[in-house]
Structures are given as C-alpha cells and as structure tokens.
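Today's session is about reading a structure prediction critically. Students often jump straight to the picture, but the first step is always the sequence itself: look for stretches that repeat, for charged clusters, for runs of hydrophobic residues. Only then move on to the predicted structure, which in these notes is written as discrete structure tokens rather than atom positions. Here is the chain we will use throughout the hour.
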Amino acid sequence: MLWKAGGDMKILAAQHVKLGFIGLGNMGNRIVQRLLAHGYKLFVFDRNRTKAEALVPNGAVPVNDIVEHATQM
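Below is the predicted structure for this chain, in token form.
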C-alpha cells in the first residue's frame, strides 16, 4: 500500500517509483534534476556519457546503453 490515511501521497509515490530518462540536453537535464530533487530514483542515458555522470552526485544512476536502461525498469 502506497498511501496511509493522513499521509502524503507524493512523498510515498516518489519512494516507490523508478524512472528511466533518455536524453539529457537542455530540457532533459532540467527535468531530471527536478525529479531527483523530489526523491525519484532515476536511471539516465545520454549518448554523451559525461552528461549522465554529472547527475550522479544528485542521485541519478547512469546506464551504458538503452537495452540496459530498459532492463532496469
């Protein structure tokens, strides 16, 4: 059960959801940073691996390719 009476559904949902994100350009990077700030677990992929690795301190998990990305979900 993700919600208890009187609880905050948003916080509980973030703790139980894994997301994958492909593409960390200007828009993707900002979206990922906001999701990480709200407690979501994110697996990230970009053709430029340094963009994915730059998000590790914020809690992102970089993956090596899209196939690995899909298997993490």
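Discussion point for the tutorial: The beta strands are 18-22, 41-45, 61-62.
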